[in-house]
Design a protein that fits this description.
The complex is a heterodimer of chains A (303) and B (252). With 303 residues, chain A is mostly helical. Chain A is built from 12 helices and 2 strands, in the order ααββαααααααααα. In chain B, the strands form 2 sheets. Chain B has a 6-stranded mixed β-sheet with strand order 6-7-8-3-9-10, sandwiched between helices. The chains are: A mainly alpha (303), B alpha/beta (252).
């Protein structure tokens, strides 16, 4: 009797376990399926573009003008350069400030300042991108125009500044976590050797937290490179090859956002926009991959 | 011959309102090994960390009395702690090499001291590793991560790192407590060798170790210095009953 009961319980447990096992399995698979699905649709819709547009034209010519009067042109160099210009500018602003702010929060600020400042910084991430774009037009725009003596301030710098603001919360927050998780013993060893607080941060804590800091910057970059609304509003949207940060630019994302609403379906132009999307996807994918490899190597070196 | 290197007078320390060290007066002799023993929480580590002002890192620490190192009171507010810590090196209980190469670990103190001369740094690193009896074991892999070393080797690396900045005094906070007996023996031999050049103050939990290596021994309890004498006398004829009880393992 007892034995039969035990067997019954065992079976029930077995079924329960199997149920949860499959539940989690399905959840895990679902994410991969959705991701693969997005990639497949992107690939499928972009593929015809490369039948209709010469690959060399697509990747190596400057102008994107699908409604050209004399000739349609499908070159992405101008928007590619624009995207990189704005993104690199944003990183150049956000990384030093972000690491500095994180080091301040971690090592200099008192516990009370940290308690208030950290959530506040994280709230910064909740500002909708369209609001930031608005600020770009209304606030940053006249400031830049005045500072650089330009007719207006809707240009690459404007986009970089706004994207830097967007990337900052991520960079600060994750960098600070990484710095906090550096063992106290490293800090103590450094101070006991006669290092100043400053030297300890620069030479011991930041290197020890580098994997986390790189991850933070990559996430910040991911945010910046794919951002659409803000750059669309603040960068002036001129589809020409920019030669300086004071030029109005149009990034890859902005081009897709502007044109996809009005393009006739299944036209070369339509496929071309998906090809841009695919290119962007591959770029971000490569960035993440490289970052992952760098991180992995770095961790291996440390251990 | 053996001058007083550190002269502690009426030294007290408290964390906020909690007293940790009460009115300690003792003289620590140059080129001698001074062992500090006592039960957990007796203030021995705190005392050690007062000697290079590492307690400054903890909020709310207050001190009174004086600690003279070569007749300079290191407790004064205007003391340059960076300079002090270069004179008073420290080795911690758990080995704590930086996540850098073996070479860079030892060179760290020199680099932060502003030394850029490559040849000098190389020579100094080699000398320090030799002094820490580690050179032969690592000379072929100086540019490998310090984490590849064994626990005992890591601790000797930390000693080498401390020696590289040429301190006058070496503080050791239970440097062998996390090591196996063989590694411990090596560290003890090393400490014995080091006293020729340095004044060593070592905190230890291990009575046999204190008896083996220290020239003078101080017994702390509940923040007070109970007894302080030549090690031989301490471990054979302690003057106080409570010291004897502790040494013979009746409590602790």
């Amino acid at each position: 009797m007892k034995h039969a009961e035990a067997v019954k319980k065992y079976r029930a447990r077995k079924i329960e376990e199997r149920f949860f096992h499959s539940l989690f399995f399905i959840n895990g698979i679902l994410v991969i399926v959705v991701l693969a699905g997005i990639f497949a649709i992107l690939l499928k819709t972009a593929a015809p573009a490369f039948r209709e547009i010469d690959l060399r034209e697509f990747f190596f010519t400057v102008h994107w003008d699908p409604a050209g009067y004399e000739k349609e042109s499908y070159g992405i160099i101008a928007m590619l350069v624009s995207t990189f210009l704005v993104t690199l500018g944003a990183l150049a602003i956000a990384i030093p400030i972000g690491i500095g702010a994180a080091a301040y929060l971690c090592d200099v600020a008192g516990p009370r300042v940290r308690e208030i400042a950290k959530p506040l910084i994280e709230v910064l991430a909740a500002i909708p991108s369209v609001v930031l774009g608005f600020i770009g037009i209304v606030v940053v725009n006249p400031m830049l125009a005045k500072f650089f003596r330009q007719p207006n301030g809707l240009n690459a710098v404007n986009g970089s500044i706004l994207l830097a603001i967007m990337a900052l919360p991520t960079i600060i927050s994750i960098t600070e976590d990484a710095l906090v998780s550096v063992p106290r013993s490293f800090e103590q060893a450094s101070l006991a050797l006669g290092a100043t607080k400053w030297q300890t941060i620069i030479r011991v804590k930041i290197p020890a937290a580098l994997s986390g800091i790189i991850a933070a910057c990559m996430l910040g970059m991911g945010r910046a490179i794919g951002e659409t609304m803000t750059v669309l509003m603040a960068t002036g949207c001129a589809p020409a090859l920019p030669t300086s940060y004071l030029h109005a630019v149009r990034t890859m994302t902005a081009t897709i956002a502007i044109e996809l609403g009005e393009v006739p379906y299944y036209s070369t132009h339509y496929y071309g926009l998906f090809a841009i999307g695919l290119t962007l996807f591959i770029i971000t994918f490569m960035i993440n991959l490289v970052a992952d490899l760098v991180l992995h190597n770095f961790q291996k070196m440390q251990r | 011959m053996h001058d007083v290197k550190i002269k502690v007078s009426n030294f007290s320390l408290s964390y906020g309102d909690v007293p940790a060290i009460k009115n300690v007066t003792m003289s620590i002799k140059a080129n001698r090994i001074t062992g500090i023993i006592g039960p957990s929480g007796c203030g021995k580590s705190t005392f050690l960390r007062a000697l290079n002002r590492m307690n400054d890192l903890i909020l709310g620490v207050r001190t009174s009395g004086t600690i003279l190192i070569d007749s300079e009171d290191i407790l004064q507010k205007n003391v340059d702690v960076v300079h002090l810590r270069r004179r008073v090196g420290m080795v911690f209980q758990k080995s704590n090499p930086f996540p850098k190469t073996i070479f860079e670990n030892v060179a760290y103190g020199l680099r932060i001291g502003g030394i850029k001369d490559k040849a000098y740094i190389e020579q100094k690193v080699e000398k320090s590793l030799q002094a820490a009896a580690l050179w032969d074991e690592v000379k072929d892999r100086l540019h490998k991560s310090a984490f590849e070393l064994s626990g005992g080797q890591q601790q000797r690396l930390c000693i080498a790192r401390a020696l590289a900045v040429e301190p006058e005094i070496l503080l050791m906070d239970e440097p062998a407590s996390a090591l196996d007996p063989l590694a411990t023996l090596k560290i003890e031999e090393l400490i014995h060798e080091l006293k020729k050049k340095y004044t060593i103050v070592i905190v230890t939990h291990n009575m046999q170790q204190a008896a083996r290596i220290s020239d003078f021994t101080a017994f702390f309890m509940l923040g007070e210095l109970i007894e302080y004498d030549v090690a031989n006398i301490m471990f054979t004829k302690p003057r106080k009953k409570i010291t004897e009880d502790y040494i013979t393992g009746r409590f602790g």
